[in-house]
Amino acid sequence: MEFKTLGTTGVQIPVLGLGTWGIGGLMNSNSENDEMGIKAIRLGLDLGMRFIDTAEMYGRGHSEEVVAEAVNDQRDSVFLATKVSAEHLAYDDVLRSCEASLRRLRTKYLDLYQIHWPNSRIPLSETMKALEQLANEGKVRHIGVSNFSVRQITEAQEALSKTRVVSNQVEYSLTERSIERDMIPFSEKEKITIIAYSPLARGQISRQAYRDRWNVLHEVAAITHKTQSQVALNWLLLKPTVVAIPKTSNLDHVRENSGSVGWSLSTEQKERLDEAFRYR
Ligand code: NAP
Description:
Blueprint: E1 3-5, E2 12-14, E3 18-19, H1 31-46, E4 51-53, H2 62-71, E5 79-84, H3 91-105, E6 110-115, H4 124-136, E7 140-146, H5 150-158, E8 165-171, H6 183-190, E9 193-197, H7 204-207, H8 214-224, H9 228-237, E10 242-244, H10 251-258, H11 267-276
Parallel strand pairs: 3-4, 4-5, 5-6, 6-7, 7-8, 8-9, 9-10
Antiparallel strand pairs: 1-2
The site of NADP nicotinamide-adenine-dinucleotide phosphate (NAP) has 26 residues, from α10.
């Protein structure tokens, strides 16, 4: 596995993590789904993807329980990230949500606690004060946000007295590049980690027929002897502040995704992809 520094913390995190939306089922959990999710997470951990992203809203908390079962006695060697939902951003609600996530994840601390989405009805300063309180108590090691704009991150940072916002989790893939306009330059200047969600365009990357711009991805995959998903993830990770959290419950896909690191696209290959999937 390869690692990048989380924000300005000096903490090293794997560049590939494990997304968990839908792990253990979305609404109706059943033991077969849980078992599949647990196996996929354990294999991912074995292959070095020792960074798991979940959220209190995934499966109404059930994904966190599945993650806890998969991690079990490996807790201290896994970087565990979860999120507080947008409707729980009032001070007391943040504290309550955190306690519930700690309980479901069966842990005393979260490595990264993220605001899932901004909520304009609740003052951001109130939410940040609650997150800082959790950091002071040692329940949260690092504070992050998700789906925040540059302006919102700046506002969040201003409300913190001792800690920093270390990451922003946002959609980023070959087909969704809008964060390149201002978020990527901001993250590089301010040293904020970008956690790329839906990095395989929700599975679209591997499903596309070979035509138009997808031909370029197909050709680069053939030249590099990698799969399209591996090329798409490797392309994302070329950006210095970006790490990615593909989701899969399929063991072959876990192995495939872990093979996205340990090699690098050439400058020419990167530029061909940049051009074919240009942000318009
Ligand atoms: P994604 O990771 O881009 O794609 C997941 C889909 O791709 C699944 O259908 C998966 O199916 C398939 N897949 C995975 N690896 C594959 C491979 N090697 N070959 C072919 N298909 C493959 O999309 P995502 O789940 O939306 O995003 C990833 C994670 O980001 C989520 O799980 C969640 O943790 C996070 N997320 C966060 C937010 C937010 O608002 N912060 C929003 C969306 C997602 P199989 O399971 O069958 O492999």
